[in-house]
Automatic annotation (TrEMBL):
<keyword id="KW-0813">Transport</keyword>
<feature type="transmembrane region" description="Helical">
    <location>
        <begin position="629"/>
        <end position="651"/>
    </location>
</feature>
<feature type="compositionally biased region" description="Low complexity">
    <location>
        <begin position="255"/>
        <end position="284"/>
    </location>
</feature>
<feature type="transmembrane region" description="Helical">
    <location>
        <begin position="12"/>
        <end position="29"/>
    </location>
</feature>
<dbReference type="GO" id="GO:0016887">
    <property type="term" value="F:ATP hydrolysis activity"/>
</dbReference>
<dbReference type="InterPro" id="IPR013736">
    <property type="entry name" value="Xaa-Pro_dipept_C"/>
</dbReference>
<dbReference type="InterPro" id="IPR027417">
    <property type="entry name" value="P-loop_NTPase"/>
</dbReference>
<protein>
    <submittedName>
        <fullName>ABC transporter ATP-binding protein</fullName>
    </submittedName>
</protein>
<comment type="similarity">
    <text>Belongs to the ABC transporter superfamily.</text>
</comment>
<keyword id="KW-1133">Transmembrane helix</keyword>
<keyword id="KW-0812">Transmembrane</keyword>
<keyword id="KW-0067">ATP-binding</keyword>
<dbReference type="InterPro" id="IPR029058">
    <property type="entry name" value="AB_hydrolase_fold"/>
</dbReference>
<dbReference type="InterPro" id="IPR008979">
    <property type="entry name" value="Galactose-bd-like_sf"/>
</dbReference>
<feature type="domain" description="ABC transporter">
    <location>
        <begin position="668"/>
        <end position="896"/>
    </location>
</feature>
<dbReference type="InterPro" id="IPR017871">
    <property type="entry name" value="ABC_transporter-like_CS"/>
</dbReference>
<keyword id="KW-0378">Hydrolase</keyword>
Amino acid sequence: MPKLPRPRPRQVIAAAVVVVLAAAGVVWLNQDSSEAPVATREAVLDLESGPGRDEPIKLDTTLYLPETTPAPAVLVAHGFGGSKRSVDGDAQELARRGFVVLAWSARGFGRSEGQIGLNAKDYEVADASALVSWLAEQPEVQTTAPGDPVVGVTGGSYGGALSLLLAGTDKRVDALAPVITYNDLGQALLPNSATTQAVAGSPAANPYTADGVFKRSWAGIFFAAGLGGADVANPTAQAPEAGSEEDDDSGGAAGTADPAAAATGDTGQAQGQSGDRGAAAPRGAGACGRFTAEVCRAYSQVATTGRADQQTVDLLRSVSPASVTSAITQPTMLVQGEQDTLFGLDQADANARQISAAGAPVKVVWYTGGHDGGSPGPQLRAQIADWFDFHLRGQGSDPGTGFEYAVTGALRAQGAPSVRTVTAGAYPGLGGAAPTTREQLPLTGEQQVVVNPPGGNPASISSMPGLGSLIAGSSRLAGRISIDLPGQVARFSSAPQAQQLLIAGASTVKLRVGAQPGQAQPPDGAVLFAKLYDVGPDGTRTLPASAVSAFRVPRLPADGSPVEVTVSLPGIVRPIEAEHRVELAVATTDQAYAPQQLPAVYTVSLAPDAAALAVPLVPGSRSSSAPPMFPLVGIGVVLVVVAAAVAVAAVRRKRSDTLDPSLAEVPLVIEGLSKSYPGGFKAVSDLSFRVERGQVLGLLGPNGAGKTTTLRMLMGLIQPTEGEIRVFGHRIRSGAPVLSRIGSFVEGAGFLPHLSGRANLELYWAATGRPVDKAHFDEALDVAGLGAAVERKVKTYSQGMRQRLAIAQAMLGFPDLMVLDEPTNGLDPPQIHQMREVLRRYAATGRTVVVSSHLLAEVEQTCDHVVVMHRGRLVASGGVDDIVAGGGEATFRVDDPAAAAAALGALDGVGEVLVDGELVHADLGTLPRSAAVAELVRAGVAVEQAGPRRRLEDAFLQLVGEESGA
């Protein structure tokens, strides 16, 4: 068996973070409303505890009242570990929309009594049904018959499942809108994504095969939330003040209800609500906290063995919406998050198929958040309210039964990701809708051997359960934490894409898995983890949504004969851009799951008759929008975690890249940059500008303007006094890894004179540690134009030849950002012209070039943007055309100069007009050149050419002044 590699420090730290921060919260998070609270009425209701038990329990409730009653009602259920306070913001929003809203703390949470049964039909679901009956008795609630209110139900995660279970068991529910929830809790916590049968035709279908792999990290977070008393469902909720009357009600120590509040020392009341808090274990509860004995036994059984026995499977099935979806006929809006390693898109997909089969109208919405990404933002919450408006009181337009999904794209200029919504007429595969279209994406890769180490340790890392929201901002950073360990992963790759490929759902692939002959194999089969990477042209791997599909292949033949299975990959929404590849990785371990304890060796290969990935495509109309969610912030983290995070940050500050995910696709951002030297001289002062992909930016300024100092700080050669430089989101410092993405020629290149030009380039590239085939030596040398001289020793080179060799070195590897300081020094006019074309072609590939030059005519012809510096300060920035046209002077070539001069001179705001042969020069002031052209055309003048009268040199001199000596 191959020798296992020693884990690197960053892998150890990442694994430690997963373990330490597993106490962070789960589920449905809501934003508090900034408007004045609506009228509320508190009530503690006595409900029967359950079949065969006489003692009642008390549920803590809050009724939110709209301005006009009677009105339809909406039940709002909270997430696991939360309480009625967790949904206060949503409840107030719905009340302002005119609904009577009832929020309550489920049994075992907040100040409600009883034990947690995980939405058992005889307990939590029966409680909700009793609340429906109570609503029917309230005079503010509209009814259709005695005991039958007009009522909808919504909630997220645990509360979303309650919505489905209630609708499936109580026909008085008229409409529902569950959010980021599950269909089958057994498959959510013990998934098995491999089958020998066909997979359903909906976009994110999963085969849901029995005997899955235990998702131990998320399951552990769930169980901890039911033990310790943290209101992890709402980090903005506040704990009661120490010594308040509520301390005795909840059975816990004062001031410990909300770790996020405790960490900041803020223990005030939130939103005027009563001071309830998350579930606290009653005294003497032991290891089970507030869980029922059945739930406690099930968790103990699966957590200690890693497998679910039949009793556990039956329990999880009984508390899952899948047990009642065949009875749900009410209009259902299913909202699921695209950033969710707990309840993926497959769970909403299963709910949609089953509820539609029962005859109910179903609308499906996938949004950019989830348990790892954030709760729905105001636009999506408004859609949910619209759903209830139409289906509870017949108001507004019919929201229909279509399908919407959000596509996160590149970063906007302000740093936020662009999000577009794709809308399809129906969810593919439902009812009469056609099944999902799947494109066959060929994969390459030979059969590979993978090792499961003893104890499954060390393990690969794909996600940080419960913490994705802290690093997601986007999914960009979250998707970069994935670590696959050598020897434990098989990889299969597609060719680079010629155009964008938009994956919308769960791809499938046929794999062959076999036992290595002569090696002992676990009796319960192979446990494997499949994931789909987006691989950029530079080799950077991103794991969309940090998602992974766990699967088990039982009974591998001892002779090594492979078993062929179809694996459903995680449901994702991901645009694979041109020149990017798709990579399928199949690993033997994953930190978030229970490991296969026994050592094993497997073979993994693509099915020879189907060596392709079946990628789901869902076309539709597109519209742009702002990100429709708030990031999850402030998840309840205990004080020791905060202290640990501070300590780790202090230790690693100088070594960290301090990535800003919102700038991960921006080549260069300089903000507040200053550089002072002893004696008080300030070379650069408060400089700020931004460079986008595909730009050729000219950095201009007279001698002493601070250009070279700025470029030296950009390359990490000197450190700024104030401010910062970020390249692709990484803060620049000496030795920063992101510097490998920059090709530079800032100061004289230190070539070895006794070696040839080619040898110098090869030596430089070897020092970077990158593969030789990524250097592109021939292309760079062709650009340099050295010809046969590249084989001569550098000591024989002229200054111009050294300059060209330095430019070739900067271009090696085709860096994403190229920085050139006076690149045309020593070049003759033909070479300057060639350089101009090279830089333009280079930027056209999506890469970025920053050029510092004193040749203004060349900058004007080469660059599309300029930054002008003078005495260390920014004096202008923008497009070259904008800078040149800044004076308002324009020149027109026309057929009738006299008529043109008369027409222009009659326009308001136009100054001096001069005729020069066929040319007419005019000072347009603030009048757009296009408006002047339009006026000339209306006057019957034929305009052959129109442009600015000034050159870049004129604009430059006006900006920096003649006295600069430029």
